[in-house]
Amino acid sequence: MANSLRGEVLNLYKNLLYLGRDYPKGADYFKRRLKNVFLKNKDVKDPEKIKELIGRGEFVMKELEALYFLRKYRAMKQRYYSDTNKTN
Asked: Do the beta carbons of residue 44 and residue 53 sit within 8 Å?
């Protein structure tokens, strides 16, 4: 049981680290915060608590993805619709 959770935690860390490259406050800021959060919870042994923390991490991952998609959407919208506003 512990090995499968360890793999999930490592996978979550890697995915969050990858997503943190484009974080608005910078990759270094995100990496430091991520490391601190994972180190704070390194002594948790209860499998249910670990699953709860993994769920919270997956929620953060989804929120980051939504943030990035919104930023890309706004940039595309600005590129394509800024010309029509200038002509009116």
From this structure: yes
Residue linked to tokens 């490391």: 35
* Per-residue pLDDT tens over the stretch 25-65: 899 999 999 999 999 999 999 999 999 999 999 999 999 99
For residue 86, is pLDDT > 80?
A: no
d(CA 43, CA 27): 26
Angstrom distance (rounded) from CA 2 to CA 46:
10
Q: Kindly report whether the global pTM for this prediction surpasses the value 0.70.
A: yes
Tell me, yes or no, whether 54 lies in a domain.
Answer: yes
Rg from Cα positions in the chain: 18
In a domain, 85, yes or no: no
Segments forming the whole domain that contains residue 38: 2-80
Q: Could you give the number of structural domains in the chain?
A: 1
Helix (H) or strand (E) holding 75: helix 47-87
